[in-house]
Design a protein that fits this description.
By secondary structure, the protein is mostly helical. It contains six helices and no strands. Helix 1 packs antiparallel against helix 3, helix 1 runs parallel beside helix 4 and helix 4 crosses helix 5. The radius of gyration is 15 Å and the shape is globular. 24% of the residues are buried.
Length: 121
């Protein structure tokens, strides 16, 4: 479970956080398109890595039929994929697990659009 979490927490998410996005502009004059392409690369890397890693372990959720921390990392990665226009159709296992998580009340309440600071535009 920890290894799955780290694929997202230390491999995929850090290169796309706001601080890195700002640095790409400040240091390298990156355009919006270049920032999006950068983010898409890292999101795809995370999705590909997680799909391959979880395939032999998953059941209804990332590891069997109980929600784990891995699911709590997967769901935001899937949201980020949508945010940066990365198709998840090549990752059927991740799509299935994320859909199962999305059906749970806790995940519904925790989704970014449900948070008070989520941008409305």
């Amino acid at each position: 479970v920890l290894q799955a979490c780290e694929i997202v927490n230390s491999g995929s998410q850090p290169p796309i956080n706001l601080r890195v996005q700002q640095l790409l502009v400040e240091r390298f004059n990156a355009t919006e398109l270049q920032k999006e392409e950068w983010a898409q690369f890292w999101v795809r890397w995370g999705l590909e890595s997680l799909e391959a890693f979880l395939k032999p372990h998953s059941g209804k959720y990332s590891f069997g039929d109980e929600v784990t921390a891995a699911d709590c990392c997967l769901v935001p990665l899937m949201f980020t994929a949508d945010r940066f226009k990365v198709s998840t159709s090549s990752y059927p296992n991740l799509e299935r697990v994320a859909a199962n998580c999305a059906a749970l009340e806790a995940f519904k309440k925790a989704s970014p659009p449900q948070q008070p600071d989520f941008p409305k535009s």
